[in-house]
Write a structure and sequence with these properties.
- The protein is an alpha/beta fold.
- The chain has two domains: 16-162 and 300-351, Metallo-beta-lactamase, Chain A; 168-295, Rossmann fold (3-Layer(aba) Sandwich), CATH 3.40.50.
- The protein has seven helices and 19 strands.
- Strands 7-8-9-10-11-18-19 form a seven-stranded mixed beta sheet, covered by helices on one side. It has a six-stranded mixed beta sheet with strand order 1-2-3-4-5-6.
- Strand 16, helix 5 (283-288) and strand 17 form a beta-alpha-beta unit.
- The chain starts with 19 loop residues before the first strand and ends in a 13-residue tail after the last strand.
- Residues 8-185 form the Metallo-beta-lactamase domain.
- Keywords: Exonuclease, Hydrolase, Ligase, Nuclease.
- This is Ligase-associated DNA damage response exonuclease.
Length: 354
């Protein structure tokens, strides 16, 4: 699939549709010979954040924020790429032909620690690849920054009007209330290992829960990384170090969603299954996850926040990917923007293997 030029060559300006394409490997910047968040190993990649549907190992060269590079080396090892180039927020680097370069600049995306929007500038054209982003306050990362551009590429994970996420504080109060009502039951919370897990722990601490939080082994390394980044998570104890699992009655245990129905969970005392995800607004999804207590906690924008972002960025063109493309494309068109689908294939954060 190639995007055709729009003919908007004003005084030598080249529209991004003339130098950004989509192929089987992903989103490609032709003059920089660089892919953005490719799903297979490539010679040169720009990585917006550390979730595995955006950050894969095996590239020859990687450009990412320093935190994203640390996340990738934590997950994949120091040799996750032959060369990696850390680029701090608002710092720029030139890619491609030195006489005709593409300028890359990262800006905060507010999704998880280290997450970035990638601004690419070439011959007067500006395109922002937002990656995944959210607009809610999150103490684990810098907030989303509005960046003016000609084309804004937005996700649409929750791109339907039905999705309206409640405050995280309200959802955490549901968990604390359940602990008081069922003090004899272990509360097993399914939460994505990167970003969501740490955010849930911090929300518990902010709500006054200062007891130890127990962790499935798959969550340990990334929590330790967040703590080295200065995010204080309080006392965390691996479940594997608890000899008497019955002592976990009335405690909070965090685990990957895949572990909720796994044999691993059977050793816990009468576990009450809890699932923290934006999808918990959909009852069928909660039943699918066998969640007794669904918590609507998301690291993505809900519908009003997607529309807020389109208004604030105010780019003439909006390219939509990863999610409910049709609804957001229609709404963007009603708002006066040119909009179209990229149809890049991703999987949902919470579905990533532990």
């Amino acid at each position: 699939m190639l995007f055709t030029a729009t003919g908007s060559d004003n005084g030598g300006q080249v529209h991004p549709s003339e130098w950004i394409t989509v192929n089987d490997t992903g989103l490609y910047c032709q003059p920089a010979d660089t892919y953005i968040d490719p799903m297979v190993p490539v010679a040169q990649a720009i990585i917006t954040h550390g979730h595995a549907d955006h950050a894969r190992a095996g590239h020859q060269r990687v450009y990412a924020t320093p935190t994203t590079i640390r996340i990738m080396t934590t997950r994949y090892g120091d040799d996750m790429a032959e060369q990696h180039y850390p680029l701090t927020y608002r710092e720029s680097v030139s890619l491609g032909d030195p006489d005709d370069p593409v300028k890359l600049t990262f800006y905060p995306a507010g999704h998880i620690a280290g997450s970035a929007q990638a601004l690419l500038e070439y011959r007067g054209g500006r395109i922002v690849i937002s990656g995944d982003y959210k607009r809610r306050p999150d103490p684990t990362c810098e907030p989303f920054e509005v960046v003016p551009c000609d084309v804004f590429i937005t996700e649409a994970t929750f791109g339907l009007p039905v999705f309206r996420h409640p405050p995280i504080e309200r959802e955490i109060q549901k968990l604390l209330h359940s602990l008081s009502v069922f003090p004899q039951r272990c509360h097993l919370v399914g939460t994505y290992a990167l970003g969501k897990c740490q955010r849930v722990i911090l929300a518990l601490r902010d709500a006054g829960y200062h007891k130890p939080v127990y962790l499935h082994g798959a969550l340990l390394k990334l929590c330790e990384l967040y703590q080295t980044l200065g995010v204080s998570l309080g006392t965390l104890i691996p479940v594997s170090e608890v000899e008497d699992k019955q002592s976990l009655a009335g405690e909070v245990v965090l685990a990957p969603p895949s572990a909720l129905a796994d044999r691993w969970s059977r050793a816990l005392p009468d576990p009450r299954t809890v699932m923290a995800s934006g999808w918990m607004q959909i009852r069928a999804r909660a039943r699918q996850r066998q969640a007794e207590l669904p918590l609507i906690i998301s690291d993505h924008c809900d519908w009003p926040e997607l529309l807020q972002t389109l208004r604030e960025v105010d780019a003439p063109e909006v390219w939509v990917t990863h999610g409910r493309e049709d609804a957001l494309i229609y709404q963007a068109s009603q708002m006066g923007y040119q909009a179209k689908a990229l149809s890049l294939l991703r999987f949902d954060d919470e579905d990533e293997p532990a």
